[in-house]
């Protein structure tokens, strides 16, 4: 059974691409996930270039170090930039680096591109926009701030829905932080909680120019169809671009689809050509090396043992790559394989739920207990959101019990005093293996919003290297150590009481959070 055939009915209209020739260097089955490269570019790298981070503080310090060291580009995509002292420190780092770039005789060409969500980034009088305007004013030729506005928030809906609630319609949710050729993929936003006591996941891909180029082009493409922040805090579209909520919606979405798929397909073509070129040059490589001597051989890149696949999900634009790949991974997982799946907001799509309950692999699902949910203690209606998640979790667990799947599908709750939980992704352990060979890491939560409403991106990291597999395993263990297994008695505890109105409303609003 071919994984690729499973995807055929889901594919968007075909785009002409160059197909890689059969290659004995990487025969089919060298690793069983090569089918993903039929959809997206495949980046082969050395595992020594991958570092898994574990804490918010480590993430924050790395951001500052990378900003200060950047020479050519800083590209940051996030939901929003916070307004506290830690976020201000990041802005100061950017300002300092831009100033150095201007003064440097040899490299005054540093470019800073920041992509945020329009509604979240505009919330309140002091917001992401006011934090970044000084940079725009001081370095107008070097700094670009793009604010994505969903095309689904328009007309009367846009006028009537108040601030904060308007964010439920759709967001720019991608989190990627890129400095020259170093890329950080994460689910964390640029806010003080994510730098201190909100647990997330983070991976650094060092010295990876092709991957950095891809995400630069992706952020540029989304930026091109976004509102551009001006020095006077107004916004405007690029000349000739259809407006996301004032212009024709179908035309806007078609342009966005074309622009983003162009990035994906051109990168895929480049990587296929590079793969073919590497293979053909290796045919004569040994004889060339003997002629060129040890100096040339010392400059060669190590053989890749790790593969990175960027997975993009933008349903408003008709792009569903992440959904296709995730569903196929869940479908293809064999008996006795183990999948550790984690999300800060447990609200799986029906398709994901059916696959988990109807397939053969073992599942360990980690989610936030009510006390570490990001909405715990919030004012107004938002304060009831943790209870809504408890209700959704209880319904899922009841279905697991009804199907007598408690041994195969285990639910665990993350709990840690003084912390909140925002980690998302999965780790796949093949049958008989104690270490994972694949992880998904990035912004999606596996819920309705991630699949249908927001702009999302994550990467599949596939590795044959034991040391990197060990890093990923330790990351998983560290998160799951702070958890307890859910049982029927869990929902009998007083803090799990869900009011009747929450039970009645949750089915109506669950697609919005």
From TrEMBL:
<dbReference type="GO" id="GO:0005739">
    <property type="term" value="C:mitochondrion"/>
</dbReference>
<feature type="domain" description="PLD phosphodiesterase">
    <location>
        <begin position="168"/>
        <end position="194"/>
    </location>
</feature>
<comment type="similarity">
    <text>Belongs to the CDP-alcohol phosphatidyltransferase class-II family.</text>
</comment>
<dbReference type="GO" id="GO:0005524">
    <property type="term" value="F:ATP binding"/>
</dbReference>
<keyword id="KW-0444">Lipid biosynthesis</keyword>
<keyword id="KW-0808">Transferase</keyword>
<comment type="pathway">
    <text>Phospholipid metabolism; phosphatidylglycerol biosynthesis; phosphatidylglycerol from CDP-diacylglycerol: step 1/2.</text>
</comment>
<keyword id="KW-0067">ATP-binding</keyword>
<keyword id="KW-0594">Phospholipid biosynthesis</keyword>
<keyword id="KW-0732">Signal</keyword>
<keyword id="KW-0496">Mitochondrion</keyword>
<dbReference type="GO" id="GO:0032049">
    <property type="term" value="P:cardiolipin biosynthetic process"/>
</dbReference>
<keyword id="KW-0547">Nucleotide-binding</keyword>
<feature type="signal peptide">
    <location>
        <begin position="1"/>
        <end position="19"/>
    </location>
</feature>
<keyword id="KW-0677">Repeat</keyword>
<protein>
    <recommendedName>
        <fullName>CDP-diacylglycerol--glycerol-3-phosphate 3-phosphatidyltransferase</fullName>
        <ecNumber>2.7.8.5</ecNumber>
    </recommendedName>
</protein>
<dbReference type="InterPro" id="IPR001736">
    <property type="entry name" value="PLipase_D/transphosphatidylase"/>
</dbReference>
<comment type="function">
    <text>Functions in the biosynthesis of the anionic phospholipids phosphatidylglycerol and cardiolipin.</text>
</comment>
<dbReference type="InterPro" id="IPR016270">
    <property type="entry name" value="PGS1"/>
</dbReference>
<keyword id="KW-0443">Lipid metabolism</keyword>
<dbReference type="GO" id="GO:0008444">
    <property type="term" value="F:CDP-diacylglycerol-glycerol-3-phosphate 3-phosphatidyltransferase activity"/>
</dbReference>
<keyword id="KW-1208">Phospholipid metabolism</keyword>
């Amino acid at each position: 059974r071919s994984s690729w055939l499973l995807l055929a009915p889901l594919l968007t209209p075909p785009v002409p691409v160059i197909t890689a020739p059969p290659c004995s260097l990487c025969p089919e089955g060298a690793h069983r996930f090569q089918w993903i490269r039929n959809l997206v570019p495949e980046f082969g790298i050395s595992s020594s270039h991958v570092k898994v981070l574990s804490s918010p503080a480590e993430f924050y310090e790395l951001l500052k170090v990378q900003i200060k060291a950047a020479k050519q580009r800083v590209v940051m995509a996030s939901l929003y930039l916070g307004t506290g002292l830690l976020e201000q420190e990041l802005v100061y780092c950017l300002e300092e680096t831009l100033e150095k770039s201007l003064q440097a005789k040899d490299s005054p060409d540093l470019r800073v591109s920041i992509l945020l969500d329009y509604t979240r980034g505009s919330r309140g009088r002091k917001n992401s926009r006011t934090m970044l305007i000084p940079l725009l004013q001081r370095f107008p030729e070097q700094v670009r701030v793009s604010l994505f506005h969903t095309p689904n928030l328009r007309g009367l809906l846009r006028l009537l829905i108040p601030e904060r609630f308007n964010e439920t319609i759709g967001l720019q949710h991608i989190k990627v932080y890129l400095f020259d050729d170093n890329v950080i993929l994460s689910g964390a936003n640029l806010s003080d909680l994510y730098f201190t006591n909100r647990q997330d996941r983070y991976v650094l891909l060092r010295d990876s120019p092709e991957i950095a180029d891809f995400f630069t082009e992706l952020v540029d493409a989304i930026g091109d169809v976004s509102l551009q922040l001006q020095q006077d805090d107004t916004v405007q579209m690029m000349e000739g671009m259809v407006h996301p909520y004032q212009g024709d919606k179908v035309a806007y979405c078609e342009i966005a689809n074309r622009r983003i798929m162009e990035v994906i397909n051109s990168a895929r073509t480049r990587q296929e050509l590079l793969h073919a070129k590497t293979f053909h040059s290796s045919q004569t490589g040994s004889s060339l090396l003997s002629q060129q001597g040890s100096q040339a051989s010392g400059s060669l890149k190590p053989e890749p043992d790790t593969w990175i696949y960027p997975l993009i999900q933008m349903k408003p634009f008709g792009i569903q790559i992440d959904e296709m790949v995730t569903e196929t991974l869940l479908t293809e997982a064999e008996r006795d394989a183990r999948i550790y799946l984690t999300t800060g907001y447990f609200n799986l799509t029906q398709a994901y739920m059916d696959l988990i309950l109807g397939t053969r692999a073992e599942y360990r699902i980690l989610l936030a207990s009510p006390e570490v949910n990001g909405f715990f203690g919030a004012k107004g209606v938002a304060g009831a959101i943790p209870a809504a998640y408890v209700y959704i979790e209880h319904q899922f667990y009841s279905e697991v019990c009804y199907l007598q799947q408690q041994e195969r599908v285990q639910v665990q709750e993350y709990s840690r005093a003084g912390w909140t939980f925002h980690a998302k992704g999965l780790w796949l352990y093949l049958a008989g293996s104690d270490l994972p060979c694949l992880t998904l890491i990035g912004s999606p939560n596996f819920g309705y919003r991630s699949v249908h409403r927001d702009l999302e991106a994550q990467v599949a990291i596939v590795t044959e290297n034991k040391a990197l597999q060990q890093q990923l395993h330790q990351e998983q263990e560290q998160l799951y150590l702070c958890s307890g297994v859910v049982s029927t008695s869990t929902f009998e505890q007083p803090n799990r009481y869900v009011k009747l109105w929450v039970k009645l409303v949750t089915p109506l609003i669950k697609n919005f959070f």
